Amino acid sequence: MKSKTEQFKKEARRALTSGNMQLAISRASKRFSQLRRQAFAHLPEGEDLRTRAQAIKAEAVERQEEYLEQFAAAAEKLGARVHRSPDGADACRYIEDLARTSGVRMVVKGKSMTTEEIGLNGALEQAGFQVWETDLGEFIIQLAGEPPSHIIAPALHKTQQEIADLFVEKLGVPLYEDPQKLTMVAREFLREKYFQAGLGISGANFALAETGTIVILENEGNARFSTTFPRIHVAVVGLEKVIPGLSELRVFLKLLARSATGQKMSTYVSLISGPGRKNEVDGPEELHIILLDNGRARFRQDAELRTSLYCLRCGACLNVCPVYQRIGGHAYGWVYSGPIGSAMTPQFLGTLRAKDLPLASTLCGACAEVCPVRIPLPDLLLTLRRRIVEAKGHSGWERSLIKGWAACQSSPGCYRIALELARLGKDFVPGLLPPGIELPDKNFHRLWQDEYQD
Amino acid sequence: MSGNPPTTVTLFIPCLMDGLFPSAAGDLVYLLRRLGFRVEYPPDQTCCGQPAFNQGYFEPARKLARRYIDIFAGAECIVCPSGSCTAMVKKHYPALFAQEPETFSRAKALGEKIFEASQFLTAFVAPERIKARFTGRATYHDSCHSSRGLGIFDEPRRLLAEVRGLELVEMEDSRACCGFGGLFSKRFPEVSQAIGLEKIKQIQATGAEWVIGNDPGCLMNIQGHLNRLGLPIRVKHLVEVLGGRSDGRGKREEGREKEKT
User: Fold this and answer.
1) What residues make up the domain containing B62?
2) Count of domains for chain B
3) Nearest to B190 by CA among A358, A14, A397, A432
4) What total of structural domains would you count in chain A?
5) pLDDT one-digit tens code per residue, B135-186
6) Do A322 and B145 touch (CB under 8 A)?
7) What's the confidence (pLDDT) of residue A22?
8) Do A362 and B177 touch (CB under 8 A)?
9) Whole domain around residue A402: which residue ranges?
10) What is the C-alpha to C-alpha distance for residues A27 and A15, in angstroms, rounded to an integer?
11) pLDDT above 90: residue A1
């Protein structure tokens, strides 16, 4: 996916002036976080599960190579073909070649942020294939030609009215107000695509090393349809998705849906172990699993930021983030948004290229409080901020200002003079203090001397 | 209450408190003395370094942290009327010196004896002993670094519950960020303001005349928004309410005499 992380400030301002989008984002993110809160209120072991989930991920990332080998061997034994892609271009090429040699013309997709990350749709369309997103939200933004604005709810920024208008324009249907009717329109439109498609593409929420199984959680059944009906299924799986096995999966099944949407369990949980067997009615003839690196092996070496690889992509941190709630996902300029996006994007694209992202946080800590795998997101943002400073990513003016400020704060005399100057100068320096904020004549240093000292 | 109360309290008055809310800091001195503590204030104290640290300027922050540790190392107990500055000392100072074992252990020791004001008061004083008066309808803003950083939530409420005349009305989400974030509000003013306005909506919905909080940064930011919107709501620092010398109607000098006797 193309990035425009450099334009964060501009895009954030634009988002703030778009009334419809503001309303849609704040309504949806509030709703999601409310539902999450209610779900955890009914899960007394929730906090212990989070701790356990974090420990599982820590161990799985630590022994990632071992688990990946185990996974690949088990999956291949079941008849799947496992391919390791060093980067997105390689993964796209693999899928293009596969589609071409298999005589595929149309591709259906289940929702996958990893394929958004590598720009798969664009690559396949450019190579002449017809690609259809089958998740309702993804389908909407595909029609609109927009990137996803939320990890689990890609069209979260759109109001119902906008979607109704979009369907009129792109699908030639009458204007329907009723969301159920709109869903039916999408459903009917997409139904025949499943039958025509020779290839179904998905991501994966987990890869189980023990059994070579990939696990997909969803609510619409479209991912199951996309991965079982077409002749070939390709799953694009980030390296960090591997966990030891079924008993670990149980912990995540309790946490993931609750964190994402407040559901006890996703409507569809598919455990896919190999392609369809000879005597089975369902399942694809071929299953290809692409284990995608695209920087992940490098992130794993980074002791300070490694915990970001624990992410389950539940979106809980976005929903509670005061910044995300106001500006939505597009302003972040790349596929992952919100706090986890601010922690990951600089790793994917380079610290300085995405430097506004870690800075665009009040460090309020709401994200870390809800993360199901306890990623210390504010600490990661602070680490990235330190690296921006180390890479001299700020203007010389700012660097001198901070240096001068610290020097002044090191001297009690200078500190006191600065306090006095702030009082005297606040009317002359616009924006130094918020409007109408008065600095009393006597600061506490003087007050102590004059009134309180023993 | 927990443990033996200290006899001497050393005050850490952060820079924003020093400049913007000096009389609230004075109220804290008055209150602590009235409760029987000896109060000290090392006059050489300056800023704890948080503004630099939060922006990733760890070296300048370390420089100020070293200075701070030297100044406060001898204190029996440190009390600070700011959640975020307390969190800076308690949580981030040790992290800053992870590579320097000696300073690390000094930072750690300091972290164990620093308390945010409401933490201190609930730990060592029975709230009903405070006997504060404050007339009006108020709502309490939980600062992020106080509530999520230090786990403070019940403490200020237990204290406020004992204040005569005060009616406390909770916001929909008292722990929602006010959008200040230190230099964040300068780097991304529009985003900061948009977050702040959400907070203001919640405050307004309570019908409160006062917003009470324990962090001078948030209070300044919230008051700024209230002023910009021309709303008659005012902010009050928690220690100002507990200090009991002002009831919001201007009786500041009441109690001053008692203090001297």
Assistant:
1) 8-122
2) 2
3) A14
4) 2
5) 999 999 999 999 999 999 999 999 999 999 999 999 999 999 999 999 999 9
6) no
7) 87
8) yes
9) 397-452
10) 15
11) no
